[in-house]
């Protein structure tokens, strides 16, 4: 089953990489690659939609907002090439979910164990703000990933946008979502039947530089995720 799962995820990834459903996002991701900041000039940008990354047998699925214009849009791996990714993968390593603390590029040898990293929106959006229609165009990819990740028991939502997207995807897959809708918060939890949804503040510079998210806080979130996954 593990090989079949990996092959199905790879087939989905190839479909994601070729997606051009959202003209605004296609134009933006390609424009960023064509005129990058000076520090990245000469680098070969990915400049396509991003598929998820990690262990096909993951018990923990980690959902973010969208790739960063000069992070994952450049490197071709979710949460790679920017400060948010530095925080995330260091935390996964401390939690025993990654074999190294850094995610630098697709060929760097990073492996996740029991975790899979993905996002609600697969292209870098202007100002990190996808439109509602763009989110809805992308949600079926998240739904299909979660369906294929049939060992997953926990969804860690990095931020309110990811929390909402995870709820929508879970509902589309038949989960019963309480009314009123569970509210996002750091360490908030919601029972979705097959999954436990766990909130964690997004490791954006806006949160980490201000102390809204600290190392002990993100470590506590992944420690809790491991408990829930067991």
Description of the structure:
It is a single chain. This protein is α/β, with parallel strands linked by helices and 230 residues long. The chain has helices at 2-17, 23-34, 72-75, 83-94, 132-148, 160-172, 205-208, 215-229, and strands at residues 53-54, 60-64, 115-119, 154-158, 189-191, 196-200. The chain has a single domain, classed as Uracil-DNA glycosylase-like domain (Uracil-DNA Glycosylase, subunit E, 3-Layer(aba) Sandwich), CATH 3.40.470. It has 8 helices and 6 strands, in the order H-H-E-E-H-H-E-H-E-H-E-E-H-H. The two termini are 20 Å apart.
What is this structure, in a nutshell?
By secondary structure, the protein is of the alpha/beta class.
Strand order of the largest sheet: 1-3-2-4-6-5
Q: What is the overall pLDDT average?
A: 96
Order of helices and strands: HHEEHHEHEHEEHH
Q: What is the percent of helical residues?
A: 40-55%
